Protein 1
Amino acid sequence: MKKLMDFLSKHRKAFMLLFDVCGMAIAMFMSRTLLPEGSDPHLYYIQSAICAAACLCGLYVFGVYQKLWFYARTQDFASFIFGYLSGSTVAVLGMAIIWSGFSSIALQTLIVFVVLSTVASIIIRILYKYLKTLYVEKLNPKTKKRVMIVGGGGACQILLLEMLAGKSEYKPVCIVDDDKAKIGCTINGVKIIGTTDDIPAIVEKKNIEEIILAIPSASSEQRAQITEKCSGLPCEVKTVPPMREFIEKGGMLNQIHNIQIEELLGRPPIDFDYDEVNSLVKGKVCMVTGGGGSIGSELCRQIVSFKPKKLIIVDIYENNAYDIQQELKLNHDLTDIDLDVYIASVRDFDKMEMLFNKFKPSLVFHAAAHKHVPLMETSPEEAVKNNVIGTYNVA
């Protein structure tokens, strides 16, 4: 079976041409029965052969034999219509000149011949596409992920074409779309069965393993709303890239990815201007208060990468201060950077004044603060001491 399919694929154009000729021959004999008694069958066969040759030329001009019919779309089949129409029109006009016009009966018979030939050619390719799909699925019998697609637009159609090619790891089960007029319709044989509000129920009913958001033009608010409806479900949620990226990189199925936080921001992500930060930090004496905390420690990592002259880390909690000190020594080249760590509280005005007088920092990154709001609600006076008075002292 594999050798046969490989042979057919290798000589695809020749076999398609042969199938079209066979289809035309069958159409020729079928339309021959429409000729009235007394008609010259030999003349009919000559005229049909000329028409068939012209139609084959028309099919070639419209690229029918250059198409990969395994991946054919609806518009690809339209090329048959144009190919047959153009070829038969040229043939009829040419024969009208040669035989000084056509009888209406002869013309009607040729029209039937062209229609039957067109139908035969299209059926042959649909059958080829169906048989090859079955063959590919048999060749790749692996279990596929059951997928729900959100959005019944152009991106959904592209995804389905790639999935149904037989080589993907996905099995499209259903589609959901908030346009209720689309419910009950199908796209490439896959049915739209509900709206995004129905996602939880459909996931359970259809045993969905993965949800793909196929709305490249969706705003961050729309993505967030759909993601919220998918939260807590036992399946992955992925999204397609914006249409611009899809066009630039080509192929949509291999570009689907997990939804990232930047896509839900509600605004474009802020780009980091490395050149401006480098000119601000490089060669300067920098101080980071609260340098051992979650925000302060990341500030220290970023600042060190821009080569300051000196970095002073100030934190009240010695464990965190020690951890970031050792991390910087281990992961960064501190050959040209002085690194000092001081255990101090921003509440202590005298201690902070001593550090400022000693090091005279050019830049101060003030990250010392109580940040856990629920905890601070039960101890508001501590938040005031640290976040208000401490900030005042540093300032």
Protein 2
Amino acid sequence: MRIDSRLLDLLMDMAEYRVLSASQVTHLRFSRLRSARRRMQQLCGRRFVKLLPGQSGGGRPENVYGLAKGGYELLVSQGRISGDGSYDKFGGESLLNQLSHHLLLNWTRVHLVEACRQNSRLESFLLASKSPLVGRSADGSSLVADKVTLVTGEEPVGLAPDAVFIMKHKRSTEATLFFLEIDMGTEPGRRTDRGVSSIEDKVKRYKAYFRSGQYKTKYEAQWHVPLRGFRTLFMTSTPQGARSISDLLRQMKPSGFCWVTSREQMVAQGISGNIWQVGGQPDSSADSIFDAYAFSCPLPSIPE
């Protein structure tokens, strides 16, 4: 097998995304599903990639892959990644108990990649909390995570989005900041007596984060662009989940910085379409996170 830039780029995707289904690999790197499957089978044979148990959600099971130790070692030897980290941080096995959650996160990322392909004037830069390529703080937490004070005098609490990204026009010096939360319907809307984390908790923490201005200090330094506020995006696994979060947001005003949609809507129109309910308002007020550059951009069908 020839070790070239195309192979290394594919393995870097496996390192960055942690787990990818056959369809996701195809959208990122191939034109045909059969070509992607054949290549991934070859990589499994060389122990650069491994086949993981799992399903991408609904329908027949689909192959899901993660980086194997051989792939990790190849990337280190080629200088693509540092050898300081442990392979365990790169492999996908540690995500098996939240595989559906992570695959939905990666579908959202794939849609974002496709939208920027279709409108080449726009660009996006994203940091995912589970990516081993994202730096770590002194306490070992992802640099995407932060702490925020809800009540003066009390201990700060954690804020850990699934991903954070900016969108900008390539010729502009300004960007829009987004925090992405993937919701699989497992978190309650409001805090329970058991103290389980809830959607309500997350919204309160993002409100405090905005008031503190910490996001400006952190992410303006990260991407060297001025930021004015941010939006928190809730991507749900089902339309029912989107409606539940929207109902909650309407009771937590001001909540206009929280935008909600479901995977079903994203599949139909793409992440750039008018699919987002702002502050939990009804479907009639759906908007696009691309603002003036809104356009429908479902993923292209991939031939077998």
